[in-house]
Amino acid sequence: MRIAVAAGGPRARVELVVGSLAPRLISRGARHVHVGVTAAEMLLLDGDTVEVSVQVGPGCVLHIEDIGGTVAYPRRNVADQASPPARWLLDLQVARGGVLLWQGLPFVVAGAADVVRHTTLTLAEDARAVLRETLVLGRHGERGGRVRSGLEIHDDGGPVLLEELTVDGEHPEPGVLGDRRVADTLLAAGFRPPSEQGDLRLEAPGALARHLGAATHDSPLDERFQRWAAAAES
């Protein structure tokens, strides 16, 4: 999937390319664009690769809204020969003065599934972004599979944040998720959001808030996303 926006008059120029995900235009002005994203395919299986490219032009604001969450399933039965992991790769680029807002819906890793998920965010001068990623180990009654989740942020000065989280529902580790199955992460980059006690404040302008819990509805980050998004556009 590819989404690219550029300022224009009277309406912004928008390029939408369908892949495993399907972007749909909801609204647009001269510089503000709202895009919804739905699944073009029914599910993610071991061995599948989903590549997402997002480009926000200078001075534009792009709000991406997930219409449905994602569930990753194993392609095989546990006793069968292993398949390569599914790959979920996001390449997000925000040009000078641009803003990207994306509140992703839960990404569920079903039992025995194996997923590599990597997000790369590149910010030009005065660019801002607010991203939310929610990882869930297992459907109801499952312990969940394995996921390796990477987050990489760069600005004009170089690396801002490099993070990797590896968890396996069948082999929980103390000090990582423990017996929790939800890792909800909210990231602000390119500006100082209204952070709270317990947030990680980055050396470069930005912050990261994370909630670890037993269920997605326990997370307090819904309201926080709205406040951080408003601050990014102000």
Polypeptide structure, described:
The chain contains one helix and 18 strands. The protein is mainly beta. The strands form two sheets. Strands 3, 4, 5, 7, 8, 10, 11, 13, 16, 17 and 18 form an eleven-stranded mixed beta sheet that branches. It has a seven-stranded mixed beta sheet with strand order 2-1-6-9-12-14-15, with no helix packed on it.
Question: In a nutshell, what does this entry contain?
Answer:
This protein is mainly beta and 234 residues long.
What integer value in Å does the Rg equal?
A: 18 Å
Parts with pLDDT < 50 across at least 5 consecutive residues: none
* Rough outline: globular
The arrangement of helices and strands along the chain is EEEEEEEEEEEEEEEEEEH
Sheet/helix structural class: mainly beta
Instruction: Tell me the number of strands.
Output: 18
Mean pLDDT: 92
How many helices?
1
> Beta fraction of the residues?
over 45%
> Termini separation (Å)?
29 Å
Helical fraction? under 10%
Query: Main sheet?
Result: 11 strands, mixed
Q: Which characteristics define this entry?
A:
single chain, seven-stranded mixed beta sheet, 234 residues, 52% strand, eleven-stranded mixed beta sheet
Break the fold down into its secondary structure elements and pairings.
Elements (H helix, E strand, L loop, with lengths): L1 E5 L6 E5 L3 E8 L3 E8 L4 E2 L3 E8 L4 E6 L3 E4 L12 E9 L4 E5 L3 E3 L4 E10 L4 E10 L8 E10 L2 E11 L13 E8 L10 E2 L4 E8 L7 H13 L1
Parallel strand pairs: 1-6, 4-7, 5-8, 6-9, 7-10, 8-11, 9-12, 10-13, 11-13, 12-14
Antiparallel strand pairs: 1-2, 3-4, 13-16, 14-15, 16-18, 17-18
